[in-house]
Amino acid sequence: MLNSLNARPLKATISRQSFLFCGMVLLVVFFGACKRSVFTDNIKEGVIQYDVVYTNNSPRNFPMQLLPKTMELRFNEHFVSYNIEDRVGLFSICNINDLSNRSHTTIIKVFDKKYAYKGERNEAPLFFSNSLYTITPTSDTSRLIGVLCQKANINIARPTKNFDVLYYTNIGVQNPNANTPYEKIDGLLLDFIVQLKSLDMRLVAKNIEEQSIPDSEFIVADSYKFITKSKMEEIITTLLP
What we know:
There is one protein chain. This protein is α+β, with helices and mostly antiparallel strands. Helices cover 19% and strands 40% of the residues. It has two helices and twelve strands. It has a twelve-stranded mixed sheet with strand order 7-8-9-10-11-1-2-3-4-5-6-12, covered by helices on one side. The longest helix is centred in the first third of the chain and has 34 residues.
């Protein structure tokens, strides 16, 4: 009987200890996860993964399911690169934007063929159209991938389009959109639209990770053959709908 009476408070004590232990474990996991967050304010270099959504159909009845569904943006204080590739790995297109001298290089790989085009200073990358973008900042904000983004309204005259973009300003990179139609937006674009030939691609960030990106990653390999702008545009037009 005595053992039975003593067992109850002991059991209750163990239960309370288990509860406290579990609570401490949860707190450690929570704060540990926060500490390991892949995104920090004043980020200066890293990688952003985007989902690609096509807002128009191919005028050539191209099978849209074969088009790229993701894009990767890599950046540091001197360079920004945009890279997309098709679903089956037959081709990839990458634009490297040099923020220091306001120039860009487009590289493309088709099977085992590799080509590159070096743009002129202040020339818009082939990733973007030459249309004039009228950018109107707003006071609206929205959260995306856990961060508070600013919103701006974009108007394009030819062809007429109007849409909103989201961007994050608390970064350590100056003018990351230099030499693009979004140059007046001083922040990382996390939800925006790119016109690649006849395609309108909406890019929505799904993940961002702060990591060291050396300048050497933005150097064009010797295996790429430099060609003219018209030849590069011809190749892109052939590949895309």
